[in-house]
Amino acid sequence: MSRRLGYFRLNSLRSRLMLLVALAILPLAVMTVVSGMREREHAIKASEENLRRLTGMAAANEAQSVEGARQILVDLASVPDLLKDTARCTSLLSDVLDRNEGFVNFGLIQLNGDVTCSAVPLLHPVNLGDRSHFRRAISERRFIAGDYVFGRVIKKHTINLTYPVIDRSGKVLAVVFAAMDLEGLDTYINDINLPAGSVLTTYDARGGVISRRPDPERHLGAKVSAAMKDALANAGQRAVTIRGEDGVERLHTFVRVGPQTLTDYTVTIGIPTETIISAARHDQVMSLLALAATTLLAMVAAWLVGDVLIVKRVRKLMGTAERIAAGDLEARSGIDYGNEEIGNLAQALDRMASALQKKETARSLAERELRAADQRKDEFLAMLAHELRNPLAPISTGAHLLKLLHSDNVQITQTCSIIVRQVDHMTGLVDDLLDVSRVTRGLVSLSTQVLDLKRVVDDAAEQIRPLITARRHRVVIDLPPLPCHVKGDHKRLVQVVANLLGNATKYTPEGGAIDLRLAADGHDYVLTVADDGIGMEPALVERVFDLFTQAERTPDRSQGGLGLGLALVKSLVELHGGAVHAASPGPGKGSTFTVRLPRHTQDVVLAPQPAARDGQDDGAPLRILLVDDNVDAVHTLQLFLRSAGHRVEVAYSAGDALELAKTLVPEVCLLDIGLPDFDGNELSRRLRTLPQAAGATLIAMTGYGRQQDRETAMAAGFDHYLVKPVNTTQLSDILAAAAEANIKR
Fold it and tell me: Known PROSITE patterns for this protein (predicted)?
């Protein structure tokens, strides 16, 4: 049974052969269906045109009857005796009623609404002051065809047609009306021949039925359905299909009865859609049956012939291919190569197996060589990082020694602090490089113990505090009141938190906000570091923990790194059995990094770590404005210039520099190009427009050394262009020339 079912699977060869047959017949099937749909559309369109013609005819007949009533009322309004004597008025209206079939009453309405004259005797006083057609005839001073009413005088289904009686001065004296029998109105459309099941209906302005065929008595005065109401709102547009209250779906067209000045009535005729498309459907069904029979015969032929001519030989090819896929590259098909498709396929399969056998040998050799090269790369990277640390040690020691020997000299002490800080920064980069090398080679081992994550956060915050202070960030640290115990390596976890905080400070502008929160979540502790910095694109969020991945550099961001910090965070967190996640709403909207670490029930006490910071300045003869957002760089250059006897004022942004220049009146301006608000080229242009700095010597200090950068700076108004690190001898010569030029002025 299962074997028989296998014959019918779509992944079998015979099934695909049958599919080809089906695809060959598909255009014919599509054409059959499309032809049937076109026939159906054509039938509907033809019926729609005929239906619109019939509806227009019915509307014209009804408009003719209403126009006749209007003419009668116009004539009556011009009769002088109509308002003089009630008896003569009644006699006149009775005579008019007798001579006009289809009307059930004529009458005269005074301005207060009282009917004072009626062709039908009044059994009791009648007031029609509340009728809208009466009020409209007075206010609009024209013929009004009213909505459906049940007559108060004659007690029948009617529509009241009114016309104002106006004297020569233009004053409305009364209103003459005619009550038209709705059953009489229906007689005007009896000559409209409609298919069985069709409905012809006339609606007044409020959606009340004033004429219907068939069954007029049962529907007169009934309100329009919701679907019909929507269609009436768009009357005059194309035909619409509506399901009636009897459950029959009909195609309706709508035509207004006469012009807008005559009536507000609408005529609609609905023909059952089943009547319209029945013939087209019958032809389409017969075509589809013939197509199905043809398809079935073709597939049976494909099924029987395919097994004899193709399937058995292809199965042998399948077996050979499966052996090759299993790794037996020596497998061959064993089929005779003939001048036909399956023989050619067998020959190609055997050649492929031979070629794969050769390529597999070459691939194995290349893989071994690649692994050896990768290992050599890791060893070289580790050796390079190790060797880079060697010259850093004497530099750091020499700086500390110089500070110790000259502790009474403030400038030397400050310079030594800067050297130590920069050496520490470079040492951190080298440490990251070494850590990445160890992680990639699997050489990192953890010294785990039970510790308090709150102490880890405190130590990391203390470690990163100088950078936070330098960039004036607002940092909020939210820690729970109770200890948060985890099992891990204290030094490595401090490195994780410090790297996250350091990353936040690098990519958050000065004065920005950083939030660090620690909270329990189920069986984990969750550490979140959020900032309002430059944010990340979605593509960067996905790869932010990859090695050497960084956000786009901008001229105002001197703090960078090697793109190793977050990669180390991910590796170290995973070594602790945790997970790290990055998120950002988009560029300019900040970033959030979340670390989850498993909770532990024991306790631990951690030791604190210290941090230090320094700085100082003096005054001198040349007034120099120094502008740079790198705190250490600007302080070092400030000390150098002050040691030469100059008066130096410092600004960390272009905006502050402009304000400072107004009070300092500088003779020399040393400007960095990459500034946080706008660049040094724009600052140079603005300084040239200030009276206090128009004659100053402008010197550019930048890390951009291309010729086009130099030309841009000189065009912006700079006198000199120096590439960092600045050559102090060259700078001294420029300052000497500036001082000499000031003396000659």
Answer: HAMP, HIS_KIN, RESPONSE_REGULATORY
Name the segment(s) of the chain with CATH classification 3.40.50.2300: 623-744
Domain with CATH 3.30.565.10 in the chain: 449-549+563-598
In this structure, the number of other CB atoms found within 10 A of the CB of residue 708 comes to: 8
Separation of alpha carbons 82 and 107, rounded Å? 10
Please state, in angstroms and as integers, the Cα–Cα distance from residue 634 to each residue in 287, 321, 642, following that order.
90, 72, 12
Residue 38: exposure state from Cβ atoms within 10 A (0-12, 13-18, ≥19): exposed
Q: Which residues contact 712 (CB under 8 A, 6 or more apart)?
A: 681
Residue 514's closest CA among 478, 550, 559? 478
| CB burial of residue 392 (10 Å; 0-12, 13-18, 19+) | middle
Quickly list DSSP for 255-308: EESS-TTT---EEEEEEEHHHHHHHHHHHHHHHHHHHHHHHHHHHHHHHHHHII
What tokens does 583 get? 């998120």
- CATH class belonging to 192-276: alpha beta
Which of 29-38, 484-493, 664-673 comes out lowest in average pLDDT? 29-38
The CATH number assigned to the domain with range 66-181 reads 3.30.450.20
Q: Sheet containing 474-478: which strands, arranged edge to edge? A: 474-478, 513-521, 524-531, 591-598, 579-583
Residue showing tokens 């077996």? 319
Distance CA 293, CA 67 (A): 62
Q: Is the peptide bond before 725 cis (omega within 30 degrees of 0)?
A: yes
From residue 556, give the alpha-carbon distance in Å to each of 347, 630, 653. 66, 10, 10
**Is-contact 520 597, C-beta < 8 A?**
no
- What is the C-alpha separation between 237 and 255, in angstroms, rounded? 9
Give the CATH number of domain 623-744.
3.40.50.2300
CA dihedral (591, 596, 601, 607) in degrees, to 10, reads -50
3-state class (DSSP) for residue 169: coil
Task: Answer yes or no: are the C-beta atoms of 382 and 434 closer than 8 Å.
Answer: yes
Q: Which residues pair with 83 in a beta bridge?
A: none
User: DSSP string covering 434-489, please?
Assistant: HHHHHHHTT------EEEEHHHHHHHHHHHHHHHHHHTT-EEEEE--SS--EEEE-
Look up residue 278 and give its amino acid: S
Integer Cα distance of 628 and 730 in angstroms: 19
Question: Is the C-alpha dihedral spanning 490, 492, 493, 494 positive or negative?
Answer: positive
Task: For the chain, give every residue range classified as CATH 3.30.450.20.
Answer: 66-181, 192-276
Under the banding of pLDDT at 50, 70 and 90, the label for residue 516 is: very high
Residue 250 near residue 244, CB atoms below 8 Å: yes
d(CA 81, CA 76): 10
Phi-psi region at 106: left, alpha or beta (left = phi > 0; alpha = psi -120 to 50): beta
**Rounded CA separation 576/572 (Å):** 6
CA distance 713 to 397: 40
255 CA to centre of own chain: 45
pLDDT in tens, 126-176: 888 888 888 888 888 888 887 776 666 666 777 888 989 888 888 888 889
Query: In CATH, which superfamily holds the domain spanning 449-549+563-598?
Result: Histidine kinase-like ATPase, C-terminal domain (3.30.565.10)
As a whole number of angstroms, the distance between CA 155 and CA 320 comes to 97
CA pair distance 146, 133, nearest whole angstrom: 5
Q: What is the distance, to the nearest Å, from the Cα of residue 161 to the centroid of all Cα atoms in its chain?
A: 59
Q: How many CB atoms lie within 10 A of CB 520?
A: 12
pLDDT mean over 387-408? 51
Residue 112, CA atoms < 13 Å, CB-side half-sphere: 4
Helix (H, G, I), strand (E, B) or coil at 530: strand
Q: How far apart are the C-alpha atoms of 517 and 594, rounded to whole Å?
A: 10
The token pair that represents 177 in the structure block: 């009306």
